[in-house]
């Protein structure tokens, strides 16, 4: 994979829904971590993967994403120390990958915009439904959400 540039924002309205072109349920199970990286299993109806991500500060991080068999992903997820359940909505955008994550379970009500690209991208002006930027706030990283705010839920 390589380095990804990702910025995160709180979502403050539903104006994004008219731009959604795809929706997908995602379960992310965090299975290991060091101060410098995290390892997770992601399970969707279409794909299961094992991902290793660095914990660099700011908007760029190294990411390695490997497809694995669904039964392997489910087995690994059973030993997870934290799980995030969400529906990811992909938006139609030209300059980068824009996705909206609508969290369920213990994180119900949290909605985040993630803008991912291969390099820095200009994001102004932002739509009115985009709220505060939380890219550098570790409390909005999925791993933190899974372990600090969420609770283990493999049945949703």
Q: What name does CATH use for the topology?
A: Hypothetical Protein Pfu-838710-001
Helix count from the secondary structure assignment: 2
Category from helices, strands and their pairing: mainly beta
CATH C-level name: Mainly Beta
Number of strands: 9
| Count of discrete structural domains | 1
* Approximate strand percentage: over 45%
CATH superfamily, by name, is Hypothetical Protein Pfu-838710-001
Q: Using only CA atoms, what is the Rg?
A: 15 Å
The coarse overall form would be globular
From N to C, what is the helix and strand string?
Answer: EEEEEHEEEEH
Largest sheet: 8 strands, antiparallel, barrel
**Helix share, percent:** 10-25%
Instruction: Give average pLDDT, whole number.
Output: 88
Which CATH architecture? Beta Barrel
Low-confidence stretches: 151-156
Strand order of the largest sheet: 1-5-4-3-2-6-7-8
Q: CA-to-CA gap between the ends?
A: 29 Å
